[in-house]
Amino acid sequence: MASAGKTTELAAVAEAVKQAPGRGLPPVHLWHPEHCGDIDIVIRRDGVWMHEGSPIGRPELVRLFSTILRRDPDGYVLVTPGEKLSITVEDLPFRAVAMERRGDALVFTTDVGDEAVAGPEFPLVVETDPETGEPAPRVRVRADLWARIARPVFYELVEMADEANGDLIVHSAGAAFGLGSVSA
After folding, report:
1. Of 49, 79, 154, 159, which sits 20 to 30 A from 96 (CA to CA)?
2. How far apart are CA 180 and CA 169, in angstroms?
3. Would you list the DSSP string of 69-118?
């Protein structure tokens, strides 16, 4: 059962977000309130947002919280003009669940509805997962927030890649990104 204090804290954060000006993303980079503590929100490795051990079932609420997410030197926080609360992120905060080519750009769509155009400012990076040895692709979404590229989307990237000197390369918005070596 959720404690009244924690539920009230979550409601207060949600209400503060609704007050953010404009229809776009709030200017979280301009907000520097005192750290208020931790809130029991976890973004699991699979992208599910949890509160007090239960999934947050309303996509609109997850989207709302995603707009006030920021990564500070000491970790991930939800920030409003008056509050800053630490949360836990098991891997990366977002999942790139779709991709399309628009002109010369690759446009990724995240599980919370953000779009990221891979290019010089929003790189696509492929590292190897140390636990599995599998490719661990990601794309920058905004500031220091990244999306893990879903496996089917990565397969699409591999299909469209060109081979150069034994490496797979994709191009987007004037930049070239390596996906890994061609296996023998």
Report:
1. 79
2. 8
3. EEEETTEEEEE-SS-EEEEEESS-SEEEEEEEEETTEEEEEETTS-EEE-
Between strands 135-142 and 124-128, the pairing is antiparallel
For 67, residues 6+ apart whose C-beta sits below 8 A from its C-beta are 17, 20, 25, 26, 28
Q: Mean pLDDT for the chain? A: 88
pLDDT tens-digit profile of 171-184? 999 999 999 888 64
Q: Which residue has the tokens 């970790």?
A: 75
Distance CA 119, CA 114 (A): 16
For residues 63 and 23, the answer to whether their CB atoms sit within 8 Å is: no
Residue that has been written with the tokens 């990104």 in this structure: 177
Q: How far is CA 105 from CA 102, 153, 158, in A?
A: 5, 15, 15
> Coil, strand or helix: which one is 36?
strand
Q: How far out from the chain centre does Cα 73 lie?
A: 16
